[in-house]
Amino acid sequence: MQGFDETTRSGAVAVPARIVARGVGVVARGGGEILRGISLAVEPGRLLALAGSSGAGKTTLLEVLAGVRAPDRGTVLRADVPAGGSQAELGFVPQDDIIHRDLPLARTLAYAARLRLPAGTGSAEVQSAVDRVLDALGLTGRAGVRVGLLSGGERKRASIAVELLTRPAVLFLDEPTSGLDPATGAELITLLRDLSRRGTAVVLTTHTPADLSRCDTVGFLSPDGRLVHLGPPEGLSAHFGVDTVEEVYGVVTADTPDLADEGPGADEPTAEARSAPAQPPRPLGALGQWALLTRRSADIMIRNRLSVAVLAGSPVMIVIMFVMLFRAGAFDPADPSPGTAAMILFWIAFGAFFFGLTYGLLQICTEIAVVRRERLTVLRLGPYVLAKATVLLPVLAAADALLLAVLRALDRLPAAGWSVYGSLFATTVLASAAALALGLLASAAVSEPGQATLMLPLLCFPQVLFSGAFVPVPQMAWPGWALSWAMTNRWAFESLGSGIGLNALWAHGRSPLGPPLLASYGDTFGGPTARGWIWLAGFTVLFLTGAWALLARSCPRARAVAETAAPSP
Ligand SMILES: Nc1ncnc2c1ncn2[C@@H]1O[C@H](COP(=O)(O)OP(=O)(O)OP(=O)(O)O)[C@@H](O)[C@H]1O
């Protein structure tokens, strides 16, 4: 590990910053107080550790200082040390990794750099920023290794490297040493200390007593969220009248007196700093983000064996099953099989739905920590969601085309012109698009991949039951009839039937089973094919908007710290 010595001088920050919290309080949703009356200053060139028992509020305080979360009481203000000029960035490393595991380290850093560095940054500058942070964190030798194969300590350093790309003035880290062995943890703290010596203010939370002795200042929280000590680590145990830092955790209770509130000191941010909005350099625009995120998503998908297996395997498996299930010639007007013809169309609609849903379900929840972090500063959610659809729609269209082509080649579908097959193809692609959007919505709604997997049957069952294939829509009880309007599969099934002329086959084909089926299904296939397309396109837009809205709620933007002033009680 290089550290931030003279050879890595480019790791220095351009604009050091000071952050001052005064009387900060945070109230939990249930009404309990998480933090009470906390005042402290984060200084450039200093390494501040926040310690305290589990649940004391360390992460909450870190998030408030970083602008990730707004305080309910008090103020958090920042002052960039030199007057004038643009304000420098804040870096935030949460506990979860904030890099994609499927990409080689240098590649994932290059994507992060293109997203975070100002619009118009050239390839050479991106490469030099990546080389700089790899060097600074001792990861140059691991540049070509897939992130998932790095050790825990290397991955933690890789997450820090992402943050250093923009030369942040203040770097916040939530438990950076958790899960690391003592030597690796100590090495990491030394590295952060070197970083702080170069002008960056570093704030971290930790549970490891050994970390505290390597920091400049320790802020100790009581179990009820008050700051009960703030000072150099050497004075910590003496302050509480015990021999070791470990013992401090035992003696600090809700009865421990508050730190005397002397405030953060005379050089509090000036009035100008209070009112100055943060002016980060202009980031990549919406179109640029969409193009970059599309490339990154495609790159990740191709490199992930599981996703390649799902993308290629599920259409092939479903086509084989359909071929095994249905006999040839169900659409032959001379000897039709009316019931089978309807079932073939239903299962084509369901196949298109299933491809789209399975493709979408794991897209967002598997990288939510990365999205959350990128959203804090630069990421736009519209381009992000659209990039997912852009990458997956062509693959879905290919799967739908394969399904139709194989079924036609093996005579499970009738000999018909290009216009009929164009209509069937358009229906399946729209059905897949709506299902993909539903999958993305579900993926944005859950918090982990396990929950997304559980959603699969929950989303599929109603689409089978209420599509109108097994119980025709005119025969449904009214609650089922009402629900059927919300089923994308109903509209795909109806458009397929109308596009292929199922009513005519049932009415004029030489099978006595046709007319009764026609009577039972009513005008299910009698409407224009485009009616189903409009419904499917509408659902696609609705579900994509829903995914965007859910992400906007769960992944908020960071608040400009200078503006996070809440009224004091
Ligand atoms: N959004 C929230 N809504 C309700 N309660 C919350 C919320 N965020 C945090 N808490 C509660 O606030 C308390 C402090 O949480 P926090 O994660 O800040 O503590 P911590 O000191 O970092 O804990 P640990 O060391 O175990 O990570 C906990 O009891 C937690 O359950």
UniProtKB/TrEMBL annotation:
Transport as UniProt keyword: yes
Transmembrane segments: 306-328, 340-362, 383-406, 418-442, 454-473, 533-551
Region called Disordered, residue ranges: 256-283
Membrane-related topology note: Multi-pass membrane protein
Gene3D superfamilies from the UniProt entry: P-loop containing nucleotide triphosphate hydrolases (3.40.50.300)
A GO molecular-function annotation: ATP binding
Localization in the cell: Membrane
UniProt cross-references to PROSITE patterns, sorted A to Z: ABC_TRANSPORTER_1 (PS00211), ABC_TRANSPORTER_2 (PS50893)
Keywords, alphabetical: ATP-binding, Membrane, Nucleotide-binding, Transmembrane, Transmembrane helix, Transport
Location of the ABC transporter domain: 19-249
Chief location bin: membrane
Protein name: ATP-binding cassette domain-containing protein
Source organism: Streptacidiphilus jeojiensis
